[in-house]
Structures are given as C-alpha cells and as structure tokens.
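User: For this week's homework, look closely at the record that follows, marking any run of repeated tokens, and judge whether sequence predicts the tokens.
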Amino acid sequence: MTKRRFGKRLALASMTTMAFAAPAGHAQRAEPPPKAGKPINAGDVLSGELNAMRVRGKKGKRVATYQLTSEPRRLPPPNGLCGLETGPETFQIVTNSDAQAAELIGLVGKVVSLKIDEVACAHDAGQMSEAVVTKWSVVTTH
C-alpha cells in the first residue's frame, strides 16, 4: 500500500541530496589541516584584544574576570594543546589583587600585550576560555 508517484518522489529526493552533498565533500577535502600555533612559555608575550566577562563566583559574588583573544598558541608540557588541534586561542586572565583588576579595567576593548609567567589548560567547569593565565604583567597597550 504505497502512495502513487512514491518512486518518482524518492528518486527526486535522492538526486537532490547527491547534488548538494558532492560539492560540500570536495570543499572539505580542499582545506588544509589547521597548523598548531607557535609555543608559548613562561616569560613570553601574548598579544590580543582584552574583553571583560561577567562571572559569578562562589555564593553568587561577582568576580572580576578578563579574557584575551589571540592567535592559537601551544602550551608547554604537560598541557600541550589542551585537547585542541591548533592550541588555545582564548585565555582567561586571572586577577590576584584589586590593583591588577584596576589595571585591566581601563584596557578592556583594546589590544594589549601581557608577559605570561604561568599558564595552564582550562579544566574546571564554568571556565569560558580554553586556557587560564594565573601570573602575568602588562607590557604594552596598542
């Protein structure tokens, strides 16, 4: 008990699917695989746009949190690529004092360069960046 013209509809649907699927498959093969970013070690400079994020810490208290978006960078072992093909591109900047938070608040939305002293992959739930920078200092602003 099939509907009339079922075979024609099925043939049309499969031809349409094949017509759109074939070019997409060729386009995916044409792209080169992404290259891993250059390594970043303690003492290196990381540059990119600084953004402020709204994060609630324990007990609902607001925590000053910043994010630096940069080119992909590989982290030193044992962190490696943080489970990514190219390495992390977003870095959460952790402030350890009110003075550091005050220093960054005026730089939000600007391109900044930070000297990185300690960096690791993000592992905790709620972290919005791929890597976390816990020790840093501002080198220049652009």
